[in-house]
Amino acid sequence: MAHRVSLRTRLVIVAAAAVGISVALASAACYISVRRTLVRDVDNQLRRQADVVASRTFRPEIPSLRGVAGPLSRSGLDTAEAFQVIQADGKVVIAATTPLPVTAKDKAVAAGHLDQAFRSVGTTGNPDHARVLTFSVGGGFAVQLSRPLGDTDRTLSHLAWVLALVAAAGVAFSLVLGYLVGKTSLKPVEELTEAVERVGATGQLDERIDVTGDDELARLATSFNQMLAALDQSRRQQAQLVADAGHELRTPLTSLRTNIEVLLRVHDLPEADRTALFSDITGQLSELTTLVGDLVELARDDEQRPESVDVRLDVVVEDAVDRARRRAPSLTFNVALGPALVRAQPNLLERAVLNVLDNAAKWSPAGSSVEVSVGRNGASWRLAVRDHGPGITDEDLPHVFDRFYRSASARRLPGSGLGLAIVRQVVESSDGAVSAVASPEGGTILRIDLPAVEVGSSSDIHEQPATPAVSVPTHTSHRALSAASDAS
């Protein structure tokens, strides 16, 4: 397997490459700019000398100078380092020093088609490297002036060496700086890696990383600490759930075992006692089944649940009330409902509503009533369920939605202490809130608040039959309903 380059090495390479490319581009721009400036200076010198030559009246003498070499003082060419006079066909009339090459553009200048033309001849670094200006003097003749570029080549060569040294020094500096920056900036990442390795090796979730600053790495460390804290809390809750579940399961299992052992050992047990034992076993099995079902529901807290849909809260409440009436036929359920649209998981929402109604039924004396209402509470729809039981003490009120919490008076009644915990879990998963308050007229009011979905903004309304507001029966306690509505 190919060796993988570390992140620090990649950062150093990237930094060096970035600096190297930047220095190379800057050096190239500097070299080209200086070269253009130096060449432009030579061109200006040639242009000034050409202006002197063009101002002289020596052109009539040019035909008589064919093949003659010598100073031409009246033309101003005697001061030129290298020159020659050409005609339109490219033939050289007179030349000083080595003849200069004649191109088609030079012939065009001599013919009067162009005023002047610049070009370079020879190769860089050689003695023949020069700059040539060809300009017309009329009559089918042109003059070529030349200036060597040796000094320019030497200056540019020296500049190239300086720029190369600067580029090399910049790359070396970027390597060192990249290493130092990588070592400093990646320190939190190294600490994070070490912490992850320690957590993986030891399983201890109380590991934390010191956070300094507010940059991206600090945010990463903060997020990691938050993740560890959440995992630690989740594991503690899981351990607590297992411990509480074991404690709650121990009692019905022990009772079941005792009753079954009695049935197995005592063969001549009176029929009445045997019937009582069977009834007790049936009740314990039912309680155990409910407890296991509640535990499974709570254990699904971290599972991927179906997406929430828009659902009619009033329809869910009405269905749950119908089921609650069948479970508690001795109670009267007084219901006041109006169309209320929320976003939730219908099955879980019905389970939560039914748990609240069952809790109210459990605490309500036979022949009493339970008031159920759905009304607006700001940006939420509120379900309020009021019973006429003994109420909740001030010390028990903050804990009624905790897992396995059962007040002293509740321990004599069937139940596991998980029903209202499931209610809170379901409601909070839908961004809602639950609360319990003591009614001024006795009993308890349990509230479920769910964010309202405004009619017209919903694109996925759960298909349920529209339900008009349920009118309150004539025997309903309007005073009790008023109290529940005030609580809403």
The number of distinct β-strands equals 12
For the biggest β-sheet, the strand order reads 2-1-5-4-3
Query: What is the percentage of strand-forming residues?
Result: 15-25%
How confident overall, as mean pLDDT? 77
Radius of gyration: 49 Å
- Please mark out the parts with pLDDT under 50 across 5 or more consecutive residues, or reply none: 67-71, 457-488
Secondary structural class: alpha+beta
**CATH homologous superfamily label of the largest domain:** Histidine kinase-like ATPase, C-terminal domain
The count of helical stretches stands at 10
Question: What is the makeup of the main sheet?
Answer: 5 strands, antiparallel
**If classified by CATH, what would the architecture of the largest domain be?**
2-Layer Sandwich
Spatial separation of the terminal alpha carbons: 67 Å
Secondary-structure element pattern, one letter each: HEEHEEEHHHHEHEEHEEHEEH
Helix content: 40-55%
The CATH topology of the largest domain = Heat Shock Protein 90
- CATH class category name of the largest domain: Alpha Beta
Number of separate structural domains: 3
